[in-house]
Amino acid sequence: MPDVTAGAAAPTPHIAPYEARGLKGRILSGVQPTGNLHLGNYLGAIRNFARLQNDFECLYCVVDQHAITQPQDPKLLASQTREIAAAFLAAGIDARKQIIFNQSMVPEHSQLAWVFNCVARVGWMNRMTQFKEKAGKDREAASLGLYAYPALMAADILIYKATHVPVGEDQKQHLELTRDIAQKFNNDFEAPDFFPLTEPLIFGAATRVMSLRDGTKKMSKSDPSDFSRINLTDDADAIAQKIRRAKTDPHPMPDTAADAEKRPDADNLLGIYAALADQEKDAAIAEFAGRQFSEFKAALTELAVAKLGPVGAEMQRLMKDPGHVDSVLRDGAARARALAAPILAETYKIVGFLKP
Length: 356
Ligand code: TRP
Prior knowledge:
By secondary structure, the protein is mainly α. It has helices at residues 39-51, 64-67, 74-90, 108-117, 122-126, 129-135, 144-158, 172-188, 236-245, 257-261, 264-277, 281-288, 293-319, 322-351, and strands at residues 26-31, 57-62, 99-102, 164-167, 199-202. It contains 14 helices and five strands. The strands form two sheets. Strands 1-2-3 form a three-stranded parallel beta sheet. Strands 4-5 form a two-stranded parallel sheet. The longest helix has 30 residues, at 322-351. The structure holds tryptophan (TRP).
């Protein structure tokens, strides 16, 4: 009989739960596959994901179902999903110890999301600032999925009873809503402490990366100018050119934190330098105080190329091997389902659904 599993990676056996391994908790975080990853995504999220793996059991999810809350080109969605997975791997997340997967391969997320759609209140959703921003002026034309987005995010987290979620400042409100949903579910169904009240892990100020063309705007994949951002897959020449062209001001480098704060472009570059060098911003300010921007930019370029070059190169290498990336995602999804299925079954029982 032909071996139908030939060529497919054997699923990694699930490792003991975090309590048994002396870890601090279980982490889940998600990244949307909606376009090129840039320095802001790396310093603000993905790099930190890798650093948490010694202390926590980690699940990192490519949230493809969240991506389609706004129109996506199906041809690009698949490669963008692989690109996020490649970035997780290139950043040093160990796919054998941790779980890297994509959301649509684990149907329990959307199954729990439906229950949460019935727990969350319309009034809560109306307060979500991300919905207001993404829906823009014509809110009537936004998808129902975009509106329900936070309930699916709560399901991503609670289907694993995750204890901690590393997120940027902008996701704090969604995490508060996740706690509200957990609490209301536990109360309404008289299931005390069934879902945990998940804690956010918010990373330092140096991780808020602004545009290289305008230090008052966030670095963004949707900025029409590619010079506004450093993409994770940029090579050394592109990185050097973008830093050379980065906006500055006519003064020498700031010599105090107060001075830097008044000069957003300088402040942003110093923040990037400090984050890449793993130091406090004050240390970077002291190092370059009063010097010329040209000197500082040369040092920043050298540092950025040294730190980001290997990550970008590894991503490029992985992107040339989609079969490998897909097998990592499938293996991760199988292990994620093993954790999610019993929690969904318990939830269904609490709600009163008959057992299939
Ligand atoms: N909403 C998050 C963002 O836009 C992505 C996301 C989806 C997420 N599900 C999640 C983040 C669960 C943390 C946990 O960045």
